[in-house]
Predict the structure.
Amino acid sequence: MLQIENIYLFIIILPIVSFLYASVGHGGASGYLALMALFSFSPESMKPTALLLNIFVAGISFYYYFKAGYFNRKLFLSFAISSVPLAYIGGTLEVNASLYKKILALLLIFAILKMLDVFGKESNNIKAVKLWQGLLVGGVIGFFSGLIGIGGGIILTPIILLLHWGKMKEAAAVSALFIWVNSAAGLVGQLNSGVSIESGSFLLVAIALIGGILGGYFGSKKMNNQKLRYMLALVLIVACAKLFFT
């Protein structure tokens, strides 16, 4: 993995991606997948590496948002109950590499539209999530998270805001832990299906954590909601373009 061409450029860009995603409560798997595709990582190493990076970066992001008091436990459980087992199932399945990149790119478009306020603005009129809604949304996102190799935060955050189930930073806190549990479940599913993690992935984790720590801190304490939305939209646009054309 670390023998690829231009690895030093990859190492420079990696913490920038983790910073931008962690600042909005995301682990960054979609960005990591796009980046690895651009730098010609082997397909068999991309998915488990992205999930591993997700676990650490989303964990750091959640810590800062939780510490700042934005975590809503009830909202998180509404989605996690069904997402975790289905993320595991998704992780055991294989999908054509080209197809899963296109699926992910389409999901990114949905997230971009939300972050640019095309639909679903933040509201003070917060509604409670019904049990069937949480199970359905969490289950569908969890399955595709494990299947594609993401945590699902890029889908969950705009849905929370669109349906007025929480505010921006509350959604970021819930999404961070949601990403963590889905990534862990998806990775376990992959390992149980025979996929292995390359030793070089752990070095990439250490590098990504630099950006994740800074992103989680500034996102939870220093940046306002508008900046968070636009920053995430920019990252998602770049990731979407890379997934479509690599």
